[in-house]
Protein backbone atom coordinates (compact mmCIF):
# COMPACT_ATOMS: atom_id res chain seq x y z
CA UNK A 1 0.00 0.00 0.00
CA UNK A 2 0.91 3.60 -0.44
CA UNK A 3 0.95 4.19 3.28
CA UNK A 4 3.96 1.93 3.76
CA UNK A 5 5.73 3.45 0.78
CA UNK A 6 5.23 6.96 2.14
CA UNK A 7 6.61 6.04 5.53
CA UNK A 8 9.31 3.67 4.42
CA UNK A 9 11.62 6.53 3.65
CA UNK A 10 14.99 5.09 4.68
CA UNK A 11 15.57 2.54 1.98
CA UNK A 12 18.86 0.82 1.27
CA UNK A 13 18.80 -2.33 -0.85
CA UNK A 14 15.10 -2.54 -0.14
CA UNK A 15 15.84 -2.85 3.56
CA UNK A 16 13.31 -0.88 5.50
CA UNK A 17 10.74 -1.25 8.23
CA UNK A 18 7.43 -2.75 7.22
CA UNK A 19 4.08 -3.16 8.92
CA UNK A 20 3.54 -6.78 9.96
CA UNK A 21 1.98 -9.07 7.38
CA UNK A 22 1.42 -11.56 10.16
CA UNK A 23 0.64 -11.16 13.86
CA UNK A 24 0.74 -13.63 16.73
CA UNK A 25 -2.39 -12.48 18.56
CA UNK A 26 -2.23 -14.86 21.54
CA UNK A 27 -3.22 -16.54 23.63
CA UNK A 28 -1.36 -15.28 26.67
CA UNK A 29 0.70 -18.17 28.15
CA UNK A 30 -0.07 -20.31 25.13
CA UNK A 31 3.57 -20.45 24.06
CA UNK A 32 3.65 -17.19 22.11
CA UNK A 33 7.32 -16.50 22.79
CA UNK A 34 8.34 -20.01 21.77
CA UNK A 35 6.32 -19.64 18.58
CA UNK A 36 7.91 -16.31 17.71
CA UNK A 37 11.43 -17.56 18.44
CA UNK A 38 10.88 -20.70 16.41
CA UNK A 39 9.43 -18.75 13.52
CA UNK A 40 12.47 -16.47 13.65
CA UNK A 41 14.60 -19.48 12.70
CA UNK A 42 13.27 -18.88 9.20
CA UNK A 43 15.48 -16.58 7.13
CA UNK A 44 12.45 -14.97 5.50
CA UNK A 45 11.01 -13.81 8.81
CA UNK A 46 11.79 -10.54 10.57
CA UNK A 47 10.31 -10.44 14.07
CA UNK A 48 9.76 -7.54 16.44
CA UNK A 49 11.64 -8.39 19.61
CA UNK A 50 9.27 -6.92 22.17
CA UNK A 51 5.53 -7.05 22.57
CA UNK A 52 4.34 -3.94 20.78
CA UNK A 53 0.85 -3.46 22.31
CA UNK A 54 -0.17 -1.16 19.49
CA UNK A 55 -3.80 -2.15 19.00
CA UNK A 56 -4.68 -2.64 22.68
CA UNK A 57 -2.99 0.30 24.42
CA UNK A 58 -4.71 3.59 23.68
CA UNK A 59 -1.56 5.66 24.24
CA UNK A 60 0.06 3.65 21.44
CA UNK A 61 -2.91 3.35 19.13
CA UNK A 62 -3.50 7.11 19.28
CA UNK A 63 -0.08 7.62 17.73
CA UNK A 64 -1.13 5.91 14.54
CA UNK A 65 0.39 3.46 12.10
CA UNK A 66 3.53 5.58 11.75
CA UNK A 67 4.36 4.78 15.35
CA UNK A 68 3.54 1.11 14.83
CA UNK A 69 5.83 1.00 11.82
CA UNK A 70 8.64 2.58 13.82
CA UNK A 71 8.47 -0.40 16.23
CA UNK A 72 9.08 -2.93 13.47
CA UNK A 73 12.40 -4.57 12.68
CA UNK A 74 14.28 -3.71 9.52
CA UNK A 75 13.48 -6.28 6.85
CA UNK A 76 14.33 -6.99 3.24
CA UNK A 77 11.66 -7.26 0.53
CA UNK A 78 11.35 -11.05 0.62
CA UNK A 79 10.90 -11.16 4.40
CA UNK A 80 7.67 -11.33 6.37
CA UNK A 81 7.44 -8.98 9.31
CA UNK A 82 5.83 -10.46 12.43
CA UNK A 83 5.05 -9.17 15.89
CA UNK A 84 3.46 -10.88 18.89
CA UNK A 85 1.26 -9.31 21.51
CA UNK A 86 -0.75 -11.98 23.34
CA UNK A 87 -3.13 -9.43 24.86
CA UNK A 88 -4.61 -8.76 21.41
CA UNK A 89 -6.60 -11.99 21.42
CA UNK A 90 -8.72 -11.04 24.45
CA UNK A 91 -9.05 -7.29 23.79
CA UNK A 92 -12.47 -6.60 22.23
CA UNK A 93 -11.43 -3.44 20.37
CA UNK A 94 -8.49 -5.08 18.62
CA UNK A 95 -9.96 -7.21 15.78
CA UNK A 96 -11.54 -4.25 14.01
CA UNK A 97 -8.38 -2.19 14.37
CA UNK A 98 -6.24 -4.95 12.89
CA UNK A 99 -8.74 -5.34 10.07
CA UNK A 100 -8.52 -1.63 9.30
CA UNK A 101 -4.75 -1.85 9.06
CA UNK A 102 -4.84 -4.83 6.72
CA UNK A 103 -7.87 -7.07 6.09
CA UNK A 104 -5.55 -9.65 4.49
CA UNK A 105 -3.20 -9.94 7.48
CA UNK A 106 -2.43 -13.54 8.48
CA UNK A 107 -3.07 -14.26 12.12
CA UNK A 108 -1.46 -16.89 14.30
CA UNK A 109 -3.22 -18.04 17.44
CA UNK A 110 -1.52 -20.54 19.72
CA UNK A 111 -3.87 -22.26 22.13
CA UNK A 112 -3.21 -24.65 24.94
CA UNK A 113 -5.24 -26.79 27.33
CA UNK A 114 -7.36 -24.05 28.95
CA UNK A 115 -6.92 -25.38 32.51
CA UNK A 116 -3.16 -25.56 32.08
CA UNK A 117 -3.25 -22.03 30.69
CA UNK A 118 -5.04 -20.81 33.83
CA UNK A 119 -2.34 -22.34 36.03
CA UNK A 120 0.37 -20.81 33.86
CA UNK A 121 -1.37 -17.42 33.97
CA UNK A 122 -1.58 -17.61 37.75
CA UNK A 123 2.10 -18.59 38.02
CA UNK A 124 3.09 -15.54 35.96
CA UNK A 125 1.02 -13.04 37.95
CA UNK A 126 2.22 -14.57 41.22
CA UNK A 127 5.80 -14.22 40.04
CA UNK A 128 5.26 -10.53 39.16
CA UNK A 129 3.92 -9.89 42.65
CA UNK A 130 6.73 -11.77 44.38
CA UNK A 131 9.26 -9.73 42.40
CA UNK A 132 7.65 -6.50 43.60
CA UNK A 133 7.44 -7.95 47.10
CA UNK A 134 3.69 -7.62 47.00
CA UNK A 135 1.33 -10.17 48.49
CA UNK A 136 -0.82 -12.31 46.21
CA UNK A 137 -3.61 -14.70 47.16
CA UNK A 138 -3.29 -18.45 46.72
CA UNK A 139 -4.88 -19.73 43.54
CA UNK A 140 -7.67 -21.45 45.45
CA UNK A 141 -8.85 -18.06 46.75
CA UNK A 142 -9.06 -16.68 43.21
CA UNK A 143 -10.55 -19.74 41.55
CA UNK A 144 -13.20 -20.82 43.99
CA UNK A 145 -16.27 -18.95 45.13
CA UNK A 146 -18.01 -21.26 47.56
CA UNK A 147 -18.60 -24.55 45.80
CA UNK A 148 -18.41 -22.91 42.35
CA UNK A 149 -15.67 -21.40 40.29
CA UNK A 150 -15.41 -17.64 40.24
CA UNK A 151 -16.22 -16.49 36.69
CA UNK A 152 -14.80 -13.03 37.48
CA UNK A 153 -11.31 -14.44 37.81
CA UNK A 154 -9.64 -13.00 34.71
CA UNK A 155 -7.46 -16.02 34.08
CA UNK A 156 -10.56 -18.18 33.73
CA UNK A 157 -12.10 -15.77 31.25
CA UNK A 158 -8.97 -15.65 29.12
CA UNK A 159 -9.26 -19.42 28.60
CA UNK A 160 -12.76 -19.09 27.11
CA UNK A 161 -11.28 -19.26 23.64
CA UNK A 162 -14.58 -19.53 21.77
CA UNK A 163 -15.85 -16.22 23.15
CA UNK A 164 -12.71 -14.30 22.20
CA UNK A 165 -12.34 -15.97 18.84
CA UNK A 166 -15.91 -14.98 17.93
CA UNK A 167 -14.93 -11.34 18.10
CA UNK A 168 -12.15 -12.00 15.54
CA UNK A 169 -14.43 -13.98 13.26
CA UNK A 170 -16.66 -10.92 12.89
CA UNK A 171 -13.81 -9.40 10.85
CA UNK A 172 -11.65 -12.24 9.60
CA UNK A 173 -12.50 -15.52 7.89
CA UNK A 174 -11.27 -18.63 9.66
CA UNK A 175 -8.80 -19.24 6.84
CA UNK A 176 -6.95 -16.07 7.87
CA UNK A 177 -6.33 -17.51 11.33
CA UNK A 178 -3.93 -20.40 11.81
CA UNK A 179 -4.26 -22.30 15.06
CA UNK A 180 -1.07 -23.60 16.58
CA UNK A 181 -1.46 -26.42 19.10
CA UNK A 182 0.55 -25.12 22.06
CA UNK A 183 0.63 -28.49 23.82
CA UNK A 184 2.11 -30.10 20.72
CA UNK A 185 4.54 -27.24 20.26
CA UNK A 186 5.90 -28.12 23.70
CA UNK A 187 6.11 -31.88 23.06
CA UNK A 188 7.27 -31.86 19.45
CA UNK A 189 7.80 -28.40 17.95
CA UNK A 190 8.97 -29.28 14.45
CA UNK A 191 5.69 -30.58 12.92
CA UNK A 192 3.80 -27.60 14.33
CA UNK A 193 6.34 -25.24 12.79
CA UNK A 194 6.06 -26.97 9.42
CA UNK A 195 2.34 -26.21 9.48
CA UNK A 196 3.06 -22.58 10.28
CA UNK A 197 5.49 -22.36 7.36
CA UNK A 198 2.83 -23.75 5.05
CA UNK A 199 0.17 -21.35 6.29
CA UNK A 200 2.49 -18.39 5.78
CA UNK A 201 3.55 -19.74 2.37
CA UNK A 202 7.16 -19.71 3.44
CA UNK A 203 9.64 -22.03 1.78
CA UNK A 204 10.28 -25.03 4.07
CA UNK A 205 13.49 -23.88 5.74
CA UNK A 206 13.00 -24.82 9.37
CA UNK A 207 14.51 -28.24 10.08
CA UNK A 208 14.15 -30.94 12.70
CA UNK A 209 17.81 -30.28 13.52
CA UNK A 210 16.87 -26.77 14.68
CA UNK A 211 15.35 -28.35 17.81
CA UNK A 212 16.89 -30.41 20.56
CA UNK A 213 15.43 -31.50 23.86
CA UNK A 214 17.24 -30.01 26.83
CA UNK A 215 16.81 -32.27 29.86
CA UNK A 216 17.80 -29.59 32.35
CA UNK A 217 15.30 -27.12 30.95
CA UNK A 218 12.70 -29.82 30.41
CA UNK A 219 11.79 -28.23 27.06
CA UNK A 220 12.98 -28.10 23.52
CA UNK A 221 15.64 -25.50 22.84
CA UNK A 222 16.77 -24.01 19.54
CA UNK A 223 19.86 -24.65 17.49
CA UNK A 224 20.60 -22.05 14.88
CA UNK A 225 23.83 -22.09 12.81
CA UNK A 226 25.64 -23.92 15.59
CA UNK A 227 24.29 -21.64 18.29
CA UNK A 228 22.18 -23.26 21.04
CA UNK A 229 19.65 -21.34 23.06
CA UNK A 230 16.76 -22.07 25.34
CA UNK A 231 13.92 -19.73 26.15
CA UNK A 232 14.21 -17.44 29.16
CA UNK A 233 13.79 -19.05 32.59
CA UNK A 234 10.37 -17.37 32.87
CA UNK A 235 9.18 -19.80 30.19
CA UNK A 236 8.47 -23.21 31.65
CA UNK A 237 7.58 -22.31 35.22
CA UNK A 238 6.30 -24.70 37.85
CA UNK A 239 2.52 -24.52 38.12
CA UNK A 240 0.59 -24.45 41.38
CA UNK A 241 -0.63 -27.87 42.39
CA UNK A 242 -4.38 -27.93 42.82
CA UNK A 243 -6.33 -30.16 45.09
CA UNK A 244 -7.74 -32.95 42.83
CA UNK A 245 -11.35 -31.94 43.42
CA UNK A 246 -10.68 -28.32 42.46
CA UNK A 247 -8.70 -29.46 39.42
CA UNK A 248 -11.64 -31.62 38.39
CA UNK A 249 -13.98 -28.62 38.71
CA UNK A 250 -11.60 -26.46 36.73
CA UNK A 251 -11.49 -28.97 33.88
CA UNK A 252 -15.23 -29.39 34.00
CA UNK A 253 -15.66 -25.62 33.79
CA UNK A 254 -14.09 -25.65 30.34
CA UNK A 255 -15.93 -28.69 29.05
CA UNK A 256 -18.77 -26.86 27.26
CA UNK A 257 -16.70 -23.82 26.20
CA UNK A 258 -14.17 -26.20 24.63
CA UNK A 259 -16.89 -27.96 22.65
CA UNK A 260 -18.05 -24.58 21.37
CA UNK A 261 -14.50 -23.71 20.40
CA UNK A 262 -13.97 -27.01 18.54
CA UNK A 263 -17.18 -26.43 16.62
CA UNK A 264 -16.17 -22.90 15.78
CA UNK A 265 -12.79 -23.92 14.38
CA UNK A 266 -13.82 -27.26 12.89
CA UNK A 267 -11.20 -29.30 14.73
CA UNK A 268 -10.57 -30.74 18.16
CA UNK A 269 -7.69 -30.60 20.60
CA UNK A 270 -6.87 -33.28 23.14
CA UNK A 271 -7.50 -31.26 26.27
CA UNK A 272 -8.66 -32.64 29.62
P1 LIG B 1 4.75 -22.26 31.46
O1 LIG B 1 5.77 -21.29 31.92
O2 LIG B 1 3.48 -22.18 32.21
O3 LIG B 1 5.25 -23.68 31.33
P2 LIG B 1 4.01 -17.39 26.55
O4 LIG B 1 5.33 -17.21 25.85
O5 LIG B 1 2.83 -17.19 25.65
O6 LIG B 1 3.96 -16.62 27.84
O7 LIG B 1 3.90 -18.93 26.94
C1 LIG B 1 4.73 -19.49 27.92
C2 LIG B 1 4.64 -20.98 27.80
O8 LIG B 1 5.33 -21.43 26.63
C3 LIG B 1 5.29 -21.71 28.92
O9 LIG B 1 4.33 -21.84 29.94
C4 LIG B 1 5.72 -23.04 28.28
O10 LIG B 1 4.95 -24.13 28.71
C5 LIG B 1 5.48 -22.82 26.80
N1 LIG B 1 6.54 -23.29 25.93
C6 LIG B 1 6.33 -23.85 24.71
N2 LIG B 1 7.47 -24.24 24.16
C7 LIG B 1 8.46 -23.90 25.03
C8 LIG B 1 9.87 -24.06 25.00
N3 LIG B 1 10.48 -24.64 23.96
N4 LIG B 1 10.57 -23.61 26.05
C9 LIG B 1 9.95 -23.04 27.11
N5 LIG B 1 8.61 -22.86 27.19
C10 LIG B 1 7.86 -23.29 26.16
Automatic annotation (TrEMBL):
One of its GO terms (biological process) is heparan sulfate proteoglycan biosynthetic process. It comes from the Eukaryota. The active site is at 29 (for sulfotransferase activity). It is found in: Golgi apparatus lumen. It is an enzyme of class 2 (transferase). The keyword Glycoprotein applies. Disulfide bonds join 221-230. GO terms for molecular function: [heparan sulfate]-glucosamine 3-sulfotransferase activity. Keywords: Disulfide bond, Glycoprotein, Golgi apparatus, Signal, Transferase. It catalyses: alpha-D-glucosaminyl-[heparan sulfate](n) + 3'-phosphoadenylyl sulfate = 3-sulfo-alpha-D-glucosaminyl-[heparan sulfate](n) + adenosine 3',5'-bisphosphate + H(+). Residues 20-259 form the Sulfotransferase domain. Its EC number is 2.8.2.-. PANTHER family: HEPARAN SULFATE GLUCOSAMINE 3-O-SULFOTRANSFERASE 1, HEPARAN SULFATE SULFOTRANSFERASE. Sulfotransferase that utilizes 3'-phospho-5'-adenylyl sulfate (PAPS) to catalyze the transfer of a sulfo group to position 3 of glucosamine residues in heparan. Catalyzes the rate limiting step in the biosynthesis of heparan sulfate (HSact). This modification is a crucial step in the biosynthesis of anticoagulant heparan sulfate as it completes the structure of the antithrombin pentasaccharide binding site. This is Sulfotransferase.
Amino acid sequence: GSFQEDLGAVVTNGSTQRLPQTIIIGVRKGGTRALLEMLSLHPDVAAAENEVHFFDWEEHYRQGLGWYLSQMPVSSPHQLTVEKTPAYFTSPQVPERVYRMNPAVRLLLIVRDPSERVLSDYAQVLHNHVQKRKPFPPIEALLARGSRLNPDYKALNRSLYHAHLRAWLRFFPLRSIHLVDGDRLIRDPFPEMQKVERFLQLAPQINASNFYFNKTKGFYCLRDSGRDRCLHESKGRAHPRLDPELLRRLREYFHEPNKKFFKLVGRTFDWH
